[in-house]
Amino acid sequence: MTSNFHALQLIMELRRQGVTDADVLSAIETTPRELFVPKIFEDRAYENCALPIEAGQTISQPYIVAFMTEALKLSPKHRVLEIGTGSGYQTAILSKLAKRVFTIERYASLMRLAEARFRELRLPNVDTMVGDGALGWPSQAPFDRIIITAAVSKNPPQALLNQLSVKGLMVIPIDLGVDGQVLVRVKRTSQGFQSTNLLPVRFVPLLEGVASE
Fold first, then answer.
1. Which of 47, 93, 103, 129 could pair with 82 as two cysteines, CB 3.0-4.6 Å apart?
2. Which of 17-21, 32-36, 82-86, 204-208 is the least confident region?
3. Quick check: 42 and 2 in contact, CB under 8 A?
4. Active-site hit among 3, 60, 139, 190
5. Domain membership of residue 153 as a residue range
6. How far apart are the C-alpha atoms of 179 and 153, rounded to whole Å?
7. Is it the case that residue 1 has pLDDT exceeding 70?
């Protein structure tokens, strides 16, 4: 299904941009991005750019997907919480690298489309929920890794920090106001949380509640 030539071109571009994790690159190369974009954009599926999807949302630029995934330092034993399923593309990448992925989306219509893609790709290790991402998924916590694909203001939601296991990592865009947004990696230690700024980014804001459609 994947366009091999265009996928390889994308992988080469990601390497040039500094993505080096072979497992991450393999997951991207073998995930058919054209399945996750509206048909009108299928011919642009392997361009290294964000594209519009349903419900006024976007599918992230492949470089950002790769960078965030690499920053998680995933292993096959990890349980991952994803906030913001969107098209399901990032979810599919995570599913190839982690033991289990729990993904939350506030738009029921987006989740239905994503679930259909997960079935088509036969991803057995993805659990979905329509809900408020800022609240996380307490009944499945703790998580070894948490990834948020929408920007929060100033600080990560406390509910998500609480659901991160000790030694766990969270990758989250934080809006600093006039200073723009920065991608941050948060590590939980036995003493608290340590944050490292990674990359300037631009994400839609994380909204509370479930969307009315």
1. 103
2. 204-208
3. no
4. 60
5. 63-201
6. 12
7. no
The answer as to whether 23 is a domain residue is: no
SS3 of residue 86 by DSSP: coil
- 171 by Cβ neighbours in 10 Å (0-12 / 13-18 / 19+) ranks as buried
Kindly state the tokens that stand for 62. 């492949």
Interval 103-151: pLDDT, tens: 999 999 999 999 999 999 999 999 999 999 999 999 999 999 999 999 9
Domain count, the chain: 1
Residue-wise pLDDT for 38-50, tens only, equals: 999 999 999 999 9
- Token readout for 76 is 């096959």
Tokens 């997960």 locate to 118
Residue 109 a catalytic site member: no
**What is the SS3 assignment for 94?**
helix
CATH code (residue 140): 3.40.50.150
